[in-house]
């Protein structure tokens, strides 16, 4: 399939460009996000003080805004840096962690969407449905909504916000207007490690920072995490568990190649 | 022994309920706390902004308050969320990291005890002695006090504060009034990894979030960490060290079963 | 070479003293810094609130100031705790992460140098050249400057600031006035893990906290990280990657001995 070739090529572009990815993200998974960004071949920078974010993002090839542990200080920095990134035309990847769980998260997501205008939104089904103004059961920051209507919701939200929507779950859905692809890589064990969603977002930003087609970049980031999860899970021996899995996940992203993507990627039109 | 059966049963209850554990904790070990919570079968959420903690804790089955890296902003959030959790009647597990080392920590611990009222306090001997108003040598946040009088101190403090006291050390002491149990699992290497105390606290909150008997929940969390430490240590091969140990610790919590608890748990009446 | 014997001896002193190392550092790599400090045999404490840093540092044997994710709150704490540490005469190890990338970082580094007066500065070539007032290309927080003139720059800055300068790169340069040593341990893979620079800084502070000769302490910390990187890299099997490397890096620091330093350390006069 043509898209798989494009995803495969996008990894080469990433490795060649080594894009700098500016993150304002949560303090729970920030180390994992920095490491996964380095591991795929990009370069992370984390800076969130209002006094320096404008300057820092001026070097960056893409921006991650992740509201996992938002606070009044970081919200203002996200809005400021987002506007600057928008001016510069670099891709802004938004991870609306736990939107809907609290009014603060919902209000902040709304401001980021309206005042910044993300290029890609990566979330689980519950989060994306909240953004689309639909009902979803929220339990903390975990996804509980089922995946039916996912494609429809992704298309509607993509058109409404004029951005790429990436919904991760059992089957991942990537939509840009009416263009949709479905990714069937991954493994349920990924949901037992904190930060795999955040790391997928960082991978999306790494790919988008080196590729002009952000639909392909989003698909590439999501597929890379899914494939790496499969490889890491398959490597587990008797007695090994989630600690070993987490280490091998980084090994698998580290050893990812265009060939592995073409061989292992499972993608179809939605 | 009857308590061992109850601890074993409490793991089944945890796996069935998958309780949501709200944490306000330090930024040093927060990722480990989130991962250990997921690993045992509960669900972590970290949120500390005063603008959302009330709402977030309304979904939670238990609350962790950990003052490892406290600051003026997080202290107010801890007090607010603690009061809300108290109103809801969910267990509040307090980890007084480094209390006694600075006036701010001591004053904050006092406020949490007086204004919130924890359900369980998990600390090392130095920290618990400070809370009990006794002398203890403090060197940073490490424990240096010896363990004599531990049972007496735990009983006194438990009665005074009407909560479960869990003292971790060479021998762990769990007290609820005059009811005391002693746990002899664990390995000294656990003290060479940062966050094993914090993770024990998160495990206690995970068990208490799914079990009404918080004395049993506290014992279950402490025993799980101790047993996992033993298993991880025993797995080490020549040339392997603390990095491998830390990974295997998560593997061991991941593969913990009611049977392993009944076989390996070493517990006696105090 | 005499210096190698001194470095080897400094590890014994560290293991005997178990110095407490107070850190104000970034939230990206703070867990790694705490763990590497424990792993080498020292004791970490992380505290950054202005209300307690003065008290906390009064127990400490050394202080780390790392501006990786600085903000207005932590800057004031760094200045306050730095002055206190200076009064006490304990070594202050400054890591000017990303200085030159933003005005805030440059201004903060200037304030720390002028108002506190570090004992050791550990940075990459770009960062040190910025501090020396020379030109350097900065791309986020990564080093891009070449290493020529490194020795000259290190000497000039050391004399100007009356402190030890440690430049890490392909070849590490340690300077104290005209006294210079060059370390040729390490492996390029170290730059693919976030926080190896920060961890080197924590190791320097661990050694300096137990040894009066901070030139030797700086060399010991840098060499330990380099040697550990070599050992971890050599251990990698087919299919293993950066996740495994990162784990083995801690294993290698854990198993470091005076003998391994004497056998593996590659050091020369500059």
From TrEMBL, chains A, B, C:
Top-level class of the enzyme under EC nomenclature: transferase
Required co-factors: Mg(2+)
Tagged with keyword Cytoplasm: no
GO BP field: thiamine biosynthetic process; thiamine diphosphate biosynthetic process
Pathway(s) of this molecule: Cofactor biosynthesis; thiamine diphosphate biosynthesis; 4-methyl-5-(2-phosphoethyl)-thiazole from 5-(2-hydroxyethyl)-4-methylthiazole: step 1/1
Pfam families, A to Z: HK
UniProt keyword list: ATP-binding, Kinase, Magnesium, Metal-binding, Nucleotide-binding, Thiamine biosynthesis, Transferase
EC number: 2.7.1.50
Reaction catalyzed: 5-(2-hydroxyethyl)-4-methylthiazole + ATP = 4-methyl-5-(2-phosphooxyethyl)-thiazole + ADP + H(+)
Keyword Magnesium listed: yes
Alphabetized InterPro entries for the sequence: Hyethyz_kinase, Ribokinase-like
Signal peptide: none
GO MF, one annotated term: magnesium ion binding
Chain residues that bind substrate: 46, 195
Family, as annotated: Belongs to the Thz kinase family.
Entry function: Catalyzes the phosphorylation of the hydroxyl group of 4-methyl-5-beta-hydroxyethylthiazole (THZ).
Protein's UniProt name: Hydroxyethylthiazole kinase
